[in-house]
Every structure is written in C-alpha cells, then in structure tokens.
Automatic annotation (TrEMBL):
NCBIfam families: ant_ant_sig. Residues 10-114 form the STAS domain. Signal peptide: none annotated. Gene3D superfamilies: STAS domain (3.30.750.24). Belongs to the anti-sigma-factor antagonist family. It comes from the Bacteria. This is Anti-sigma factor antagonist. InterPro entries: Anti-sigma_ant, STAS_dom, STAS_dom_sf. It comes from Nocardia amamiensis. PROSITE patterns: STAS.
C-alpha cells in the first residue's frame, strides 16, 4: 500500500490464506503510520473473514498502534489474532491488551488457531 500520505517506515501487505485474511506489517507503527494500519485493517475486515495481523517484523509499536489494534479487535466477532515480535508483545502485555487479543509467536500458530475464543 502506498500513497501520498503513507508513512515511509511502514509496509503493509494483505493476503488471503484460505478462510482467513492476513495483514502483514513491516516497520514501525507510530502516530504517523497508525492511520495507514487502521485503514488496512478496516478494509481487510469488510469481507467478514477472520483476521490475523502478522506483526512479527514490526520494530516499534506505539500507543497509536495499540489503539488501532483495539479498534480492530472490537470490530471482530472472534478474538483478533496477532503475531507479535518482542517489540509488539511487550506493549501489548504492559497495557493488558493481551486479555482482548490472541497473541501468537508465529503466523503458522495463528493460522492453526480457530479464532472462536472470546475475550475473557
């Protein structure tokens, strides 16, 4: 995804893997790039398929990015599945967002999960 207002530090790809939409995120998710991620997640959710956000290649996740994940989580019928790098996992755990999201160490693990569990 690219455009005039797109952040230069964020690269997004959207792929379908069977009945699941995977949004692959590379780079940094900060105040400048979070709207780009939010738009991609919103678009990916339009088809109603389960969503996996692969953030295994994200180097920084700021509060704006956490907010985007929260909004995307609230729009999902099942728990939002997030593949987290260490830089992503730490802020998710520190803010207790891991109680609303399903966090996985790999894309394969996230795809293998059925996504039917609900937030506790």
């Amino acid at each position: 995804m690219s455009g005039a207002g797109a952040s230069k530090v964020l690269d997004l790809q959207v792929r379908e893997r069977g009945e699941v939409v995977v949004v692959i995120v590379h780079g940094e998710v900060d105040m400048a790039s979070a709207p780009q991620l939010g738009a991609a997640l919103e678009e990916a959710q339009r088809g109603g398929k389960p969503l996996v956000v692969d953030m295994s290649e994200v180097d920084f996740l700021g509060s704006a990015g956490l907010s985007v994940l929260l909004v995307a989580s609230e729009a999902q019928q099942a728990r939002l599945r997030v593949v987290a790098s260490d830089a992503v996992r730490r802020p998710i755990e520190l803010t207790a967002l891991d109680e609303l999201l399903s966090v996985f160490p790999s894309l394969d693990a996230a795809l293998a999960a059925d996504g039917s569990s609900t937030a506790s």
